[in-house]
Amino acid sequence: MEKHRLIGIIIFSIVIFIFMAWLFPDASGRLGKTIIDFLTCVFGIYLIPLFLYLTSISFLLIKKDYQPNILKALLFYFLSLLLLISILIHIFNLQDHGKFIGRLSFNIYQYVGIGGYILLTLFFTFLGFLFYPSFEIFNKKKTLSKEEKVVKRKKEGKIDRIQNREQAKFINTSQKPVTKEFSIPLNILSYSAQKNDEENYEKMARSLEETLKSFKIEAKVKDWNIGPSVVRYNISIPPGVRVSRILSLSNDLALALAVPSVRFEAPVPGESVIGIEIPRSKPVKVYLREILESDVFKKSVHPLTIALGKDLIGNIKVGNLAEMLHLLIAGTTGSGKSMFINSLILSLLYKNSPENLNLILIDPKRVELSMYNKLLGKYMRHKVVVEPKKAVYALRWAVSEMERRYEVFEKLEVRNIDEYKNLSQIEENLPYIVIIIDELNDLMMIAPKEIEDLICRIAQKARAAGMHLVVATQRPSTDVITGLIKANIPSRIAFAVSSQIDSRIILDDAGAEKLIGRGDMLFHPITSSHPIRLQAPYVEDKDIKNVVSYIVENFGNLNYDIITFEEKEETEGKEIEEFGDPLLPKVIELLKGKKVISTSYIQRKFSIGYNRAARILDILEEKGYVASQGEGKPRRVLRGGDDI
Q1: Taking burial as the number of CB atoms within 10 A of a residue's CB, which of 135, 229, 246, 555 is the most buried?
Q2: Is residue 236 part of a domain?
């Protein structure tokens, strides 16, 4: 405890003891009576301001923001109060009540008179004003401006030192980086309180029972759970009725209940009932701010916590990207896939400071993630990658960074990023790296084999190095989400897809084709044996702009080194630049001695998809190597590969 606080407590205790002895002299003992008799003889009526003065001193000393000048100011205020009381005593002839101090004051009064007392009172009062900070009328503005300049210079100097030490790709320091306390306010996110519309759930339950009864199934609706976008009716069936018989009535129930689709959960985990999920007529939005403000999100201490949404009961669900290992997302246009990716990014921004998180964003569509380019030098060490060819280099860099981190772990004898961060001293700050690919399909069309190899290599080893993948696509076909990619990315999220085949590709199960879109999703974590239906968070474009602008405006001095994804020297480098596809030189070489060439022949020869093979032929036509396409016939070769 600070010395001044201890003195303040002692003074306050003495004041309380004297005050109680004054009020209850019989209960204070001989010591209390002696002290009160002495103080009364000396101070008399002046004892009251003495109590106030000592009490004020004790409170000021106990405070943490104790300032010595305030004690000096209080002393002058106390003298001013004594002089003021002396003036009143002489006006009303109460000298006997002042005792010794009163008689001393009377002798002084005879020399200076009441005018001198008034002048002395004003003099001590102004002295108190000079020492009390709140009354520094003339010097306040100047002093504050100096203090602000000193604080500003200190903060800027601290950040400059961090920037000067950054010679590596990340901060390279003997201690943990020192940055400004980082927090983003939640009130910049949009939120609108919504009420659940009163729907006739009882009537829907009766209609459901009657429809099943028309198919000779005596089922009863036990209860129902109201979620943001769907209502799940829990029905019990009599013994002897096959579950598969009810599951086959999906289209009949949708027709009878006048809803677009019906999804079954049979059985509901932990209960002996079948869940029939029916879309609500008016879905309720789940705002991201509501999830970030919840205790569930705030109590989650891991920095890679992300907002998932609400379940069918209305409970808020969050996930840990470190426990998911990596995440695979699929959904058609308009299903809410891109909005979920934005909510995932914002969740990470709210949970981490720039020194603890590095985002690598790959957006071949060019427009979905471009708003985050302003975070360059803060959360991002490279601009959003929009060219598929550069995406390959970005993934190569991620692999090399992963290997470099494992070398650091090996030297320090730690197994993963968490053990590394718990070391008392670290040579280099290693932030978490989250690689987000918004459209895998575009990358697989350019270099499928290499993209698959790089993704699998990162997915297999990178999680212990603090690196995690989030891969999204709107076309979950087998040539995009290959067997190797599926095997190495265990956690999946499926938004609305067009067919049951697509649902089985992403989830290994049907059900995603029954989703209603607009954020309705099935989340299949690695820790669960069945998918969970959730309503994804809703994020507006202005929310993203507000968060990015706040970071830029308030933490603009944070500028980390920029990463360059250097292009490796390749034998086909010039040909790639000239023709636009790394296989073009090989295809041109293949033209030697041939009169015709077809798309299917290129597919078989190089094990590529139809779209890429057709695009290669179109480029060859532009370059004058093959003739224009006939009616379903192979293309005629105009010149061979001798002039490549």
Answers
A1: 229
A2: yes
Q: How far apart are CA 185 and CA 416, in angstroms?
A: 32
Same domain, 438 and 471: yes
Give a yes or no: residue 38 inside a domain: no
Question: Per the annotation, does 334 bind a ligand?
Answer: yes
311, 357: one domain: yes
**183: annotated binding-site residue?**
no
Instruction: Mark whether 414 and 300 lie in a shared domain.
Output: yes
Q: What is the predicted pLDDT for the residue at 197?
A: 63
Region 554-568: what's the mean pLDDT? Answer: 70
Sheet holding 532-535, edge to edge: 316-320, 305-310, 532-535, 520-524, 491-494, 327-330, 467-473, 432-437, 357-362
Residue 337 annotated as lining a ligand binding site: yes
pLDDT tens digits, residue range 78-99? 666 666 766 666 666 655 555 5
Q: Does the annotation flag 517 for ligand binding?
A: no
338 is in an annotated binding site: yes
Is 240 labelled as part of a ligand binding site? no
Q: Helix %, strand %, coil % for the chain, to 5?
A: 50, 15, 35
Residue 13 lies in a domain: no
Q: Is 527 annotated among the ligand-binding residues?
A: no
Asked whether residue 306 carries a pLDDT value surpassing 90, the answer given is yes
313 plus 211 within the same structural domain: no
592 assigned binding-site residue: no
Please tell me the pTM assigned to this model: 0.62
